[in-house]
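Task: fold both queries, return tokens.
Query 1:
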Amino acid sequence: MSKPRKLMIPQDRQERLHYMRRMFPQNPGADLGDDWVGGRAAALKRLHEIDALTYGRNRNFLNGAVTRLSPYLRHGCISLAEVIEHVKSQFGDRGGKLIMQLAWREYWRQVWYLKGDDILSDMETPKVAIGRRPLAEDIRKGKTGLPCMDGFIRDLLQGGYVHNHARLWFAAYVLHWRKTNWREAADWYEANLLDGDKASNHLSWQWVASLFSSKPYYFDKENLARHTGEHYCAGCKAQCPFDDSYENLHDRLFSDTLSVQPVQFPPIRPVLPVVQGLNAFALLVHDEMLSPAHPLLRRPFTKIFIFDDKVYEQWSIHRLQFMADCLSEMPNVEVWVGDTREVLMQREVGRIETQDTPNRELKNVLTPFSPTWHPEPKLVDIEVSAKRLKRFSRYWDKVGPYVLGTVAAPQSADENRALHKPEVSA
């Protein structure tokens, strides 16, 4: 555990990257590349580069016109409402497909608010037999022998960003072909993503596994080859495990007699005593509100962000460097490293306020400081029932007309599933 100390985030970018590497030598991974710069300024630049029309035509292709906004949305550099309003103002009704995919992020988050730590366990009984094997080292190191999967792992470990379609292919390979424990795989994957969060990441893995969907997601060679432009398949010398019909793949992947009972992974968290005798009041800035435009930053209190070892020790260094970029735009925020409780007590803070979050781990840490939780705005201010939150299609049927200003035409079940494929990195 690091002794509490205040960090001085450099304004020069290269110096900042080196500084974070020195401050966090234990965090794995490659440094943040030049193609990713954290912060609101970079988020707004990407926002104005969005081409919603091209996105609607080719988003499933690896070279498609995806927005690459997910890390900025994850860390609060820009809000989902801002992005959607921009798309509507620039593209009108023609931006509907992008808006619907962006809504997946809000959907996952509302499920997290509702279910809390339950999203870290099997949400439903699996619809097919699934495996519970440990995550293999060849997967962790990107040495599976399959150029496509090793390429996706390389993108994850070196850059922290993977195209959404590649995330689904990779998760399907890990879960269905390798019969891996989804929770271990999801934890490892999230720790290396620039945009990783428990809701979008873990629930997407469960969607692929059939633990939060009506059937498992899997793919064949033709699907991967088509959407990658044969990038991996053209020179591949490996015996392709995906080269078969969907019918044969289904029989091969799901005929094993494996456990089909849901498994629970309850978190173990200590009950922390209430802090007493300290009178200072502070605004706690957490990693979902890293924007100089955040309304809570206008409040006349000491503002503190903490790189807590318990939260961030497994995260890749490029993720921490991305967050440092964000914090460099927020000069009025004190940045510390160490145990959250110890830092706040060293600053004689007895009470805090902050933005609400579905993250129960963070809430557990902050509860002793009598927190005031300021609600974060929903995408639309309407009540959505627990039943509708069981599936995105039901959720979108409810909120879609409010977001788009139109009523969507009904679709068949097969069309509905094809359209409502989860998006975490639009």
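Query 1 returned. Query 2:
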Amino acid sequence: MQVYQILYQDYLSAANPLLNSFLLGGSVWLGHAIFGSYNVGLAFYSWIQMICVTAAFAYAIRFFIRHDLPKWWIGISALFFALNPFFQVFVFTTIKENLFGAALLVLFLDTVDLLMDSETFFHKPALQIRYGVMALLMCLSRNQGIYLWVLTIPFLVWACRIHKVRLTGICISVVAVYYALTGPLSTALNVDSVNYIDAFGVPIQQVSRVMNQTPERVTDEQKQILSEIISLDAFEDYNPVTADPVKSQIHLSVAYDNPMRYLKVYLEIGLNNPRAYVDAFFALNYAYYCPGMYCWYEPKAYKNYEEEINVFGIHHQSLFPAYAELLETLIDGARIHQIPILSLCADLGFPIWSMLFILAYLLYKRKYRPMAPLMLLIAFWLSLLLSPVALSRYVLPLIMALPAIWSVLLLNARETKPQENIITT
């Protein structure tokens, strides 16, 4: 879809990060310009993406070795990165979670390093510049990246023992550069503004559940107001696990004209139907915190194209068709969820329970400062709860970070010694 919009419609949308759009569109265009094949261009983009993700994994392994983590853990992590079918499927697709996940992983590890050895960090300008650049790349790789960064800044500054003012300056500089780049650039390129309908996925589901299951609990006046932005018949399309069928029928421009009017109705209905609102919220995103639950994996992601708009002749051609079929069976066929241990490699709920377990351990040990890096990942997980549907690719960055997440536990579980470079309180 992005390639179709950029190269065929000459259209840029802020719904996709500009960095991702330029890299994807530029790669496909370059492949056609040099080799006369859009397929080669898409392959070129996939190679770039593969190199970036692999480099992030290698950086994580180097981090484990540098901090003298157990060899068995380094071996398990290497196998996790190399053999996880989840990565092998998605790293050769055009989803933006790949590059974002790579940037988030490296930034997380650099944040751990920063807090473990702040003296070295603040005595080497190159480390400070690299950290700021990596934070900026994370923000530019996904639209909500800037919000994750802003939410993490207070925890990061608090956890750092020295040079808090300088660290605050670095963090704020990242925010300033981000808006300096995206603001004027978006204006100059006439980028279409973001349609924020996805941000209202949860409220839409909550109202839809009430209107679909207990419409008698909504007053005629409230129904009249709702009918101004959506047909009441649309609530018959309510699906507990996705807001897409209903949200696609909302007249968002009308809602923007008087948002407080519709917010008031939303709150009124919620006060009268609190249980329905709670049920709608948990039914929508249960896969994000319920280990072992199957989630839809978007088969179209394997192809990198949609037939109805495939004007570039892009096609999927694997050199290892049998292995490709095996990967699709494992992921889209949910076979991976039936294999003990291996199922955790693609489980959407496992990352948050891993983080909660480590947070509980750190609280028990009264080691509060090591929690700060985890706030970056937890902030991302919280943003997923607002999405209109639970998809596997959304959690990909957290699954990529799993070995790094558990490394925080290993770094803090061993007995602390003054000469060791270990996170301490």
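Both queries returned. Flag for query 2: Residues 415-425 have pLDDT under 50 and may be disordered.
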